Amino acid sequence: MSRGLGRYILIRASMIIPTILILYTVVFIFLRILPGNPILAVVGTKSISPEQLEHLMKMAGLDKPYHVQYFEYLWNILHGDFGVTLAFPMGKPVWDYLKQRFPATLELTIWAFTISVLLGLLTGVLGATKKGTKVDTSMRLYSIIAYTLFIPWFGMMLQYIFGVKLHLLPTSGRLDPGVHLQTITGLYVLDSILTGNWDALVSAVRHLILPAFTLGIVLSGAYTRLVRNNMVDVLSQDFIRAYHARGVPPRKVTWYALKNAFIPVVTLMGLQFAILLGGAVLTETTFSWPGMGTFIVDRIDYRDYNAIQGAVIFFAFFVGLISLIVDVIYAILDPRVKY
Amino acid sequence: MEVIRPMTKFLLEKKPGRGMLLFGIAVVLMVVIMAIFAPIIAPYDPTKSTKDVFAPPSLKHPMGTNRLGQDVFSRIVWGSRVVLSVVFMATLLSMIIGIPLGLISGYYGGKIDRLLSIIMDSIYAFPALILAIVIAVVLGPSPVNTAIAISFVYVPTYFRMVRGQTLSLKNQLFVEAAHAIGAKDREVMVKYILPNLGPTVLVVFTLSVADAILTEAGLSFLGLSVTPPTPDWGYDLRVGQPFLLDGYWWLVFFPGVMIMLLAMAFALIGEALNERISLGVR
Prior knowledge:
The complex is a heterodimer. Chain A is an all-alpha fold. Chain A has 13 helices and no strands. Chain A has helices spanning 3-33, 38-43, 50-59, 66-78, 94-129, 134-148, 151-165, 188-194, 198-235, 238-245, 250-286, 292-302, 305-333. In chain A, helix 6 (134-148) packs across helix 9. By secondary structure, chain B is mainly alpha-helical. Helix content of chain B is 73%, strand content 0%. Chains A and B meet through helix 1, helix 6, helix 7, helix 11 and helix 12 of A and helix 5, helix 6, helix 10, helix 11 and helix 12 of B.
């Protein structure tokens, strides 16, 4: 790695700090300042004594003025302390949940992301090379339909077809009951390979297929469009005609064109990843996938503001990190970016 | 009449994408009619139980009944009211906030622009659904609150688009001319720049409505929009899921199809308009 690139990464990384701070502030305003008392929200209609309430407020760090809470919570987060849960069970570190839930979400999103990019490239290239034909039109239709699929509905239909009717694939969870897996990273496919546990590998992959394809197909539509339009642009350029004139096989020319059309796709990947995380919440809920999304949804029922706040801010850091990675990949791929 | 004729001509003009446009408009009209005339169209009371429980689709119940014996078709007809009102309230709100902010930011530039831009970009970069969940949780489940939650996450969409357009419009000759005849900043923005944003706003409006429909459905699927027994497409999907594995597919199939049909209709209109006005949005 050159020194220039190292400096570029540092500068880009420092530009993410305001983004994360703004999101932190927005979430803080909504969850701590706007509403009534979060403790009372958890306790609900049950009456508790003022002393008990005071004790609970103190435990959750809510008894201090807002500006103190704001910086104190931020400081704690930077040290990996996301506060404690407010209900069921009360007082358990939120970080313990995040640590346990995050790998599940990461595994789902990595597979869904890969599927969406591959499907998007395939359909986009098909559309571009068959421009103006029925294939092109149907790829365009695919893009719009995929984009407007409602994740829970699509997931349920796949569950119904492949789970209920054909009995081919499991419809919920990450592993079959009775299959044991020693977790190292928390990514089950990786862990089962690392430990040489083939039963677990088969089970983990089978559980991943439906949720990953649900999310992946829905997100592939945006790539289809972009890849097709970029490819059409690139294919009309002079250097492509030169390849054809020199008798380079069409398949190879398509490959060269794709390499050129790929750079804008990298930018889209960054934006898509945020949408992917939003979609993961719905996918996880549909498939009872024990990730961050189901964690947030579970906590909604308990009105556990601390846990929701922790999870959302964790997401903010993750989104920031992804956009940094995308920027760096872009800088490496595109020679026009100066660093 | 003078306005309507060029509009219909514009819509019916034989250009690529006419089919998409007409299909989209037809579906939207259908759902709007369904919402307005719900009491006439729906054969049953959507919240009352009939004697048939889990009845499959038949002539008596075109989309079957649910576990309480409620007629699914009637619930879908009435549910269109919730979706349409929430989504339109939300989009209107985000336009009311996003467009003026974008105008000011793009027109004045400088510190205010930098501050607004970084705030809007940060919100834009974050998963919309997750942010909407946070807001909806705090405000509590009700259609108005859902609309507020959704409107918040779509403000940046309008802001970014209007800001960009304003940046390129403010250096054009007609704006310079307006300054020359002594127009004040406010006048330039409202009288000269704003009307030119029309076509772009229209396209972004249709595309963001398509998105907002899916977000609304997502929130109500997570139980954050309406409270039972109010009929709502997303919520009915959630309630029907446990019974899907027992084979009662109609409980989730029809509400989901309606959500997507409506979202797709707006997406198709947006696509076609985008091509006609050739803006290259999105």
